[in-house]
Known about the structure:
By secondary structure, this protein is α/β, with parallel strands linked by helices. The protein folds into two domains: 8-118 and 311-327, ATPase, nucleotide binding domain (Nucleotidyltransferase, domain 5); 132-302, 3-Layer(aba) Sandwich (Hexokinase, domain 1). The chain is built from eleven helices and 13 strands. It has helices at 47-60, 93-99, 110-117, 178-191, 202-216, 225-233, 237-261, 277-280, 284-290, 296-299, 312-322, and strands at residues 8-13, 17-23, 33-40, 68-73, 76-78, 81-83, 104-109, 126-130, 141-146, 150-155, 163-165, 265-268, 304-307. The strands form three sheets. A six-stranded mixed beta sheet has the order 8-13-12-9-10-11, sandwiched between helices. The longest helix has 25 residues, at 237-261. It is globular. The mean pLDDT is 93.
Amino acid sequence: MSEEVTAILVADVGGTYARLAWARPGDGRVPRILDYRRYVCAEHADLATILRRYRRELVDSGIAAPDVAVVAIAGVLDGDCLLNTNLPWPVSVEQTCADAGLRTLRLVNDFQALAHAIGHADPAAMRCLTGPPLHVARWPALVLGPGTGLGAALRLDSVDHPVLSSEVGHAALAAGTELEMDIVRLLAARHGHVDNERILSGPGLVNLHRCLGELRGVAAPWSTPAEILDAAASGEALAVEGVQVFCGWLGSLAGDLAITFGARTVYLAGGITAHLAQWLDDGRFLRRYLDKGALSPALRRVPVWCVEHGQLGVIGAAAWHGDGMGER
């Protein structure tokens, strides 16, 4: 496919925003992202509407709109349909392709795309949480992050199969403190299965805030992640506790996954990671990340980097294509 394609439409679609651009096929080089734009998913009837709008806007700007698209999107394909609990609409590959006027449409898991992109990430967009201050890419690398959901993928030292994708957001949430156990009990009584993203995501931060209010016997007035983060920044006690618990729990999961996969580097991405900067730095994340018994000394040699999400998803969609994944 890459021999016939001179330009591709690339997109990064999450539960809240769709980020679109077009790019030249990269063939292993750093993809050049052009005409980057962002759309609110809930303001559009379906994915095809967003893709069609973007292509129309390109034409209106005098640019030939690509008819080959690679879309990095949260979820996993089951035949023609995407399984996802966080998008505002269902997605059929065949129907979306036809309705958007595309010749070819490929969907790739959003964190799989991020893992393809991580080798192309700008070091200036990275911030070290622990480890040597000079960034050196070492594989396998865990790419993990909370947004509307929770995603994770593993970047491998392999040409043929460079990325292992996952649905870790739907794996069971592990409690590591008495407070976390109390929170899991509350959630289990309401939902049965309590998965990681029930807490470790934007909506999960709201769930956590409400559980803490119930356990503390106080009002939990905030209903969005942004409100909770703003309240925490102003020192509101319940909001501060919620963000602190969130970061500690995220650190514990990051450590679990790092030792599970033998990761040599951990990258934190995701839609809300950048908003947690001061809380990730306060020590709770790192303490829980390293609190793995006999393997704690090994984890001290595994650096953790916060990487700005920004255009990384669309870069990843282009890199996925450039790595030849669409031809397999």
